């Protein structure tokens, strides 16, 4: 049975795609088969972290949604780029990108798509690729696609910054997730200044939202320097960001 994890934030710029990519790497590092789907169809980008040029992909999620291919045909094995020295036994990462073509994005804006197809596609992808984990990188905010991703999730990671606008949006999403009976709800606080007392910040947010804080991730200069050109867990496994992220992976696995 595939464990489905959605990473979501109410606002853009929280770092959810970076978190998703790093969690995918850390899971594959443990010998697990991991799928990653970019459902941020209007502003895709997680493919960049895996060194993939989305324009060179034969198929994307958009092609599946328009009936041009089977869902597994749009999945690209990015294991070798994530693990240039070879992946652990059994470990793999399969990325399903969304199109970067302006025409494809415009079509979604104009026509929308059948959200039920996503549900069918997610389950088919899990089965046909024999995935241990499926990670869904969602579109920020709340829309029909987001609600579907949340509803089918075994775990929902809600990413927020220490910012009052993020707090308000997170409260809305948490309420929706509770109504949808998501089994595991975890908050991930990102981009915390190193001057912050992380334990105190986690306790405050946990109390305010009545939900566990899986991690408080620091604002990391190495990530800024990378500029989304790689996965920090692979390049600097002992960085404070990666060390702080590992407990999230442990919670997802348990």
Automatic annotation (TrEMBL):
Keywords: ATP-binding, Nucleotide-binding
InterPro entries with a match to the protein in the record: P-loop_NTPase, ParA/MinD_ATPase, YlxH/NBP35
Alphabetical list of PANTHER family matching this protein: ATPASE INVOLVED IN CHROMOSOME PARTITIONING, PARA_MIND FAMILY (PTHR43384:SF10), SEPTUM SITE-DETERMINING PROTEIN MIND HOMOLOG, CHLOROPLASTIC-RELATED (PTHR43384)
Protein name: MinD-like ATPase involved in chromosome partitioning or flagellar assembly
Species name: Xanthobacter agilis
């Amino acid at each position: 049975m595939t464990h489905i994890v959605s990473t979501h934030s109410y606002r853009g710029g929280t770092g959810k795609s970076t978190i998703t990519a790093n969690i995918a790497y850390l899971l594959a590092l443990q010998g697990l088969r991991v799928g990653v789907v970019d459902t941020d169809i209007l502003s895709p980008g997680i493919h960049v972290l895996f060194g993939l040029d989305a324009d060179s992909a034969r198929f994307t999620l958009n092609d599946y949604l328009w009936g041009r291919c089977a869902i597994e045909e749009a999945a690209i094995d990015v294991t070798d780029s994530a693990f240039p020295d070879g992946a652990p036994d059994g470990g793999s990462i399969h990325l399903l990108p969304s199109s970067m073509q302006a025409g494809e994005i415009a079509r979604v804006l104009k026509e929308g798509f059948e959200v039920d197809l996503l549900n069918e596609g997610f389950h088919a992808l899990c089965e046909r690729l024999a995935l241990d984990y499926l990670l869904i990188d969602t579109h920020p905010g709340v829309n029909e696609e987001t609600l579907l991703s949340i509803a089918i999730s075994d775990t929902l990671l809600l990413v927020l910054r220490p910012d009052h606008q993020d707090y308000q949006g997170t409260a809305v999403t948490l309420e929706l997730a509770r109504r949808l009976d998501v089994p595991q709800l975890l908050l991930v606080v990102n981009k915390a200044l190193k001057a912050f007392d992380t334990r105190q910040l986690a306790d405050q947010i946990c109390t305010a939202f009545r939900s566990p804080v899986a991690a408080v991730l620091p604002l990391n200069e190495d990530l800024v320097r990378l500029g989304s050109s790689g996965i920090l867990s692979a390049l600097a496994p002992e960085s404070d960001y990666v060390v702080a992220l590992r407990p999230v992976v442990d919670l997802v696995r348990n």
